[in-house]
Design brief:
Blueprint: H1 2-5, H2 9-14, E1 26-28, H3 30-37, E2 45-51, H4 55-72, E3 80-84, E4 102-104, E5 114-118, E6 124-126, E7 133-134, E8 138-145, E9 153-159, H5 166-186, E10 191-197, H6 209-220, E11 224-225, E12 232-233, E13 238-239, E14 242-247, E15 253-258, E16 267-272, E17 285-291, H7 295-307, H8 311-314, H9 319-337, E18 340-346, H10 359-378, H11 381-412, H12 417-428, E19 442-445, E20 448-451, H13 454-473, H14 500-507, H15 523-529, H16 534-547, E21 556-563, E22 574-579, H17 582-601, H18 618-631, E23 636-642, H19 653-662, H20 667-677, E24 680-686, E25 689-690, E26 694-696, H21 706-714, E27 725-729, E28 732-739, H22 742-762, E29 773-777, E30 791-792, E31 795-796, E32 798-799, E33 809-811, E34 814-816, H23 823-842, H24 849-865, H25 868-871, H26 876-894, H27 903-909, H28 914-930, H29 936-939, H30 974-983, H31 987-990, H32 995-1011
Parallel strand pairs: 1-15, 2-3, 9-10, 21-24, 29-32
Antiparallel strand pairs: 2-16, 3-5, 4-5, 6-8, 7-8, 8-9, 10-14, 11-14, 12-13, 15-16, 17-18, 19-20, 21-22, 23-28, 23-29, 24-25, 24-26, 27-28, 30-31, 33-34
Helix pairs in contact: 3-4, 7-9, 9-16, 10-11, 11-24, 14-16, 16-20, 19-20, 23-24, 23-26, 24-26, 27-32, 28-30, 28-32
Length: about 1050
């Protein structure tokens, strides 16, 4: 049969030496292809197929090619990009204006794998039953692009490894034909496109029976092949192994080969002159409004505001009239100097050019492309040598340009971990940011599906009602919140009058953010022009403090949904990012400072609170918790970690106001806080689509300056409601109790948990028993299986232990287990720094050592240093793994060999070894204890060593008392480990009162130790020989 079909004219035609327009399949350079796309109709459909031979290794080359094509025509993007031999990839690659990569990769072997990038807006589904994936035999991924009228396009992405056994070849063909028959029967009206690396050479079809059999099977099913030019050119062969087969295509097609350098395979493409009515959410055009905000426009605005006659504001005693007049004058000047312009954008999808790509490099790129074409066409030794030599020079120029650009960028991001990671993503192509939001085109609201403008309203209804709905479900308490406010406070809070200098000083605390509230004014603008309108601002803010008036404009929030995790079409999987007006932020900074100063002056905050307080941090909260376990070493201890549902969103305004009154707020001060909490509204912004306003009836304002402080005041009396020792960090609530026996502890804990439930109900907050966890400490291993049951609100609480599915709890960022081993925390730290190590290893050819050192100090040191006072005191074997990784990272910073000695590197880069970093932080902790710079609730866990009951600094070694510790694992308690580290210091260092001088001297001692360490004495040491490269 195969022999007969060779003479069949339809078979010859199906192997396609011409497309439907009569044009031959051509092999084009990138510039020639870019010229071709300009001639395509706007509603065309296009697909690119490329064997990438490792997506991690060659993603940048693929992206550069796409950018080069996009530069010639901003309207052009391939509808679908199909890739073969993606291999296993460590990075979730992303191309702007394309949906998330979908791929199938091998699990047992290297190589192989197939994947798709699909343009944003195209609706598609994976056809799982057609996607046969047998490693090293036949690897495929089928998708269906949805079309109008029930008709779509099915695309099969095929990689058939170059296996020689006939059985594997026959098996691969059978799997392919099975997939074709399945989709043809299932979607009878659809068009089908098969692309990929088939490893079947069509250049000499008559010479190979396997090739004939393969082609005849596809042709007999109505498929047509479009590629007739070589897709892979080696030194001694040219083959057509990358194919494009089509079935039931109704529109004319243009196809061909593109001479790319992504891998050793060229790209192949197919364009259809009509889109086949593929469903897409793309719009034809859209209008955006944008303000002209530049340094010049802000200078002009400042000068105009400085010259403005503000008498109608500063002479007005009615706060409402004064604010209205101010807003009118300011907005007029703002519109005049920073006008809001309408930009009508055609639906262009521009792939951003690499920032290091200079005009000179672009010219060099064109020259290289011409030499590549000569190499392919001339096939002479001279043309090959010219291309290879120029390519080597071009590659060096790119590396140099990258180094210069990113050195400058990273220097500007010093100390900013978020900006540093963003730069790394751009430099190394590791998970690029998406150009649009993660919000899909439809969202579920109960049984209803919301689309279009209704999505923004759906988000706003959800965000604005969640706190109110929760509050309604809380049962009424027998006693009100006031029952827990013990005693009577006789002091009275009063706002202090402001002067112009203080307002200007407060304005400097505003961050230079460009995000805007509902008024369209950013913090950057207000911070810049405050000096020019300091007079009217001072008058207005003082009016508010004297009358309790807050303008409605200060109480409108713009909310942007941010995806967390889970299904993207469910509102509950997003969290609201609230942006309040910048002027409101400035006013709140002032009010926040005065209230906080008042509470600190009279020691009104509970000593159990560690959150949002000066001098406090998460590590101190955990340190205090662990110290309690050591202090109760002879007893069994329990930690209960409370979860509260939407704590900030459910704060009851009436309860909060009553607590403020208890703490001395009255008259105008109480009126201002009431005005601040009530009459608040929000709207949600989804990609420029705005919802209606919704009133907020519960909770402290999200995104505000005052919100966290008001929450601290709200829960301030909680520790007095129970005999638990409480540890509060904002809305994280941890409880501690100990007892002589498990039975005694169970009774005591259950009694107190009932009191905890009563307090939360009285304060109109809802506990989440299903997410509340507890750990039992100091319990002998032989008795850990003994029964222990406690409940919270009728819900049996989950015990975390080595025998349970959950091995640890997260206490303000620190992972605690029942043995205080910190092995889970160390594992998490290891994963984080390993990620940076992977990046640094990849960056040797892109970033110079000084930039890599900056990355270390920004992204590694902060991770290692967080809570190192705690986990660093764990068993040596637990921490050793981090010491080894730190050495690897330091070698990568230098660009040294994998086994190079590191003492000289630590000294050169002024980096402390992990063990020394731990001890360094423990000693700083000790310095804060000795000189009483840490919060009082931490100081109480430490004692000074004295002589004859007297503290005589001149006659002591300035030592802290080391508590008795019989159990080795409890030596992680800071009252033990910090005291030990502090006491081992020389008295001369401990006598240094100034913290900065103390830290500097301490650090210099460690670095000097590295410098004086004996050097390698081996003559033929592998580590010393050529220990540096790429530095």
């Amino acid at each position: 049969m195969d022999g007969d079909i060779l003479t069949d004219p339809s078979f010859v035609a199906a192997l396609g030496h011409c497309d439907e327009s009569g044009a031959e399949c051509e092999s084009r350079g990138i510039s020639e292809f870019a010229s071709l796309v300009k001639k395509l109709k706007r509603n065309h459909f296009s697909i690119l197929s490329q064997n990438v031979r490792s997506l991690d290794a060659n993603f940048e080359k693929l992206e550069n090619f796409l950018q080069q094509v996009n530069e010639s025509d901003k309207n052009f993007l391939f509808s679908v990009i199909a890739m073969q031999e993606t291999w296993q990839f460590k990075t979730q690659h992303q191309i702007p204006h394309y949906q998330k990569l979908i791929a199938k990769t091998r699990t047992r072997n290297q190589g192989g794998g197939v994947g798709f990038f699909i343009k944003e807006g195209i609706e598609f589904e994976e056809i799982e039953d057609a996607s046969n994936f047998e490693e090293r035999i036949h690897e495929s991924l089928f998708i269906r692009l949805k079309g109008d009228g029930g008709r779509g396009i099915i695309i099969g992405n095929i990689y058939r490894p170059n296996t020689y056994p006939y059985e594997d070849t026959a098996r691969s063909l059978k799997l392919l034909l099975d997939s074709i028959d399945l989709v043809r029967n299932k979607f009878r009206r659809d068009s089908i496109i098969l692309v990929g690396d088939f490893n079947v050479d069509l250049s000499n079809i008559l010479e190979n029976d396997t090739t004939i059999h393969f082609a005849s099977e596809l042709v007999s099913r109505g498929f047509k092949e479009h590629i007739t030019r070589s897709t892979r050119i080696a030194n001694s062969s040219e083959t057509i192994i990358d194919h494009v087969w089509t079935y039931n295509i109704s529109s004319s097609a243009v196809s061909g080969v593109i001479q790319t350098e992504v891998s050793d395979h060229f790209s192949v493409f197919l364009t259809l002159q009509h889109s086949h009515n593929i469903k897409s959410t793309d719009s034809k055009s859209q209008s955006n409004k944008k303000r002209k905000i530049t340094d010049d426009s802000l200078n002009s605005l400042g000068q105009a505001l400085a010259k403005t006659n503000w008498s109608k504001v500063v002479e007005q005693s009615d706060p409402k009239v004064a604010y209205d007049t101010f807003f009118q004058i300011f907005n007029n000047e703002y519109d005049r100097h920073c006008p809001l312009t309408t930009i009508k954008q055609k639906n262009r999808r521009i792939l951003p050019r690499n920032p290091w790509l200079t005009p000179g490099l672009m010219i060099s790129r064109q020259t290289k492309e011409k030499l590549l074409k000569d190499k392919i066409n001339l096939k002479t030794c001279e043309s090959k040598e010219k291309f290879y030599e120029y390519n080597r020079i071009y590659t060096k120029l790119i590396k140099l340009s990258k180094r210069v650009h990113y050195s400058r960028e990273f220097a500007g991001a010093k100390g900013n971990s978020k900006k540093t990671w963003d730069l790394l993503r751009g430099a190394l192509k590791i998970g690029n940011k998406k150009s649009k939001s993660d919000i899909p085109t439809s969202m579920k609201s109960g049984e209803e599906v919301l689309v279009g403008d209704k999505i923004a309203s759906g988000f706003n209804n959800y965000f604005s009602s969640i706190g109110q709905d929760l509050a309604k479900s809380i049962p009424q308490s027998k006693s009100g919140a006031g029952a827990y406010l013990k005693g009577k406070f006789n002091k009275k809070f009063q706002f202090q009058e402001l002067c112009q200098e203080s307002i200007e000083w407060y304005s400097l605390k505003l961050k230079d953010k460009t995000s805007v509230g509902f008024d369209g004014v950013s913090s950057r603008v207000i911070k810049r022009v405050t000096p020019a309108m300091i007079g009217p601002l001072c008058h207005l803010f003082n009016l508010s403090l004297k009358t309790g008036y807050i303008p409605p404009e200060f109480k409108i929030s713009r909310v942007i949904p941010l995806f967390k995790a889970g299904k993207k079409d469910e509102f509950g999987n997003y969290r609201p990012i609230s942006i309040i007006p910048a002027l409101s932020k400035l006013f709140e900074i002032i009010v926040n400072d005065q209230i906080r100063s008042y509470f600190n002056c009279y020691n009104l905050f509970t000593v159990s609170q560690f959150g949002f307080r000066k001098g406090s941090n998460p590590t101190l909260a955990v340190a205090k918790f662990i110290d309690q376990i050591l202090k109760n070493e002879q007893d069994i201890s329990i930690g209960v970690f409370i979860d509260v549902k939407k704590a900030f969103d459910t704060v009851n305004h009436n309860v909060l106001l009553s607590k403020l009154k208890f703490y001395g707020f009255d008259g105008v001060e109480l009126k201002l806080m009431e005005n601040y909490l009530t009459g608040r509204f929000q709207y949600t912004d989804v990609d420029g689509v705005l919802s209606d306003l919704a009133e907020i009836l519960a909770g402290v304002p999200q995104g505000s300056i005052l919100g966290p402080l008001l929450f601290l005041i709200y829960v301030n009396d909680f520790p007095c409601s129970t005999k638990f020792k409480s540890f509060l960090f904002a809305d994280d609530t941890s409880l501690f109790m100990s007892g002589k026996s498990l039975a005694e502890l169970q009774i005591k804990v259950q009694t107190e948990l009932n009191k905890v439930k009563n307090w939360f109900e009285a304060n109109r907050m809802q506990l989440n028993g299903k997410k509340t966890r507890y750990i039992i400490f100091n319990q002998p291993k032989t008795k850990r299986s003994d029964p222990f049951k406690i409940e919270l609100g009728g819900v049996k609480l989950y015990r975390v232990s080595e025998e349970s599915d959950e091995k640890y709890v997260r206490l303000v960022g620190v992972l605690l287990d029942e043995d205080l081993s910190f092995k889970h925390h160390v594992a998490e730290v290891k994963a984080k720094v390993n990620r940076v190590n992977f990046v640094l290893a990849r960056s040797k050819n892109v970033l110079p050592p000084d930039t890599r050192l900056l990355i270390y100090n920004t992204l590694v040191r902060s991770v290692l240093e967080f809570a190192c006072v705690l986990y660093g005191a764990a068993r040596k074997g637990t921490v050793n793994v981090l010491e080894k990784i730190q050495k690897k990272i330091v070698r990568n910073v230098k660009g040294a060999k994998s086994r190079a000695h590191t003492n000289n590197l630590f000294h050169e880069f002024k980096i402390l070894k992990l063990r020394d970093l731990v001890e360094y932080n423990q000693r700083i902790f000790g310095h804060g204890i000795w000189y009483k710079k840490l919060p009082e609730n931490i100081q109480t866990d430490f004692e000074r060593v004295t002589l004859a009951g007297r503290e005589m600094r001149s006659k002591t070694n300035l030592n802290l008392k080391i508590p008795l510790c019989k159990k080795r694992y409890l030596e992680v308690a800071p009252c033990f480990s910090v005291s030990t580290a502090w006491n081992s210091l020389d008295k001369s260092l401990k006598s240094e009162l100034k913290l900065n001088t103390f830290k500097k001297s301490l650090r210099e001692n460690y670095l000097e130790k590295y410098r004086n360490m004996p050097k390698c004495s081996h003559d033929k040491c592998y580590s010393c020989a050529g220990s540096s490269m790429g530095s």
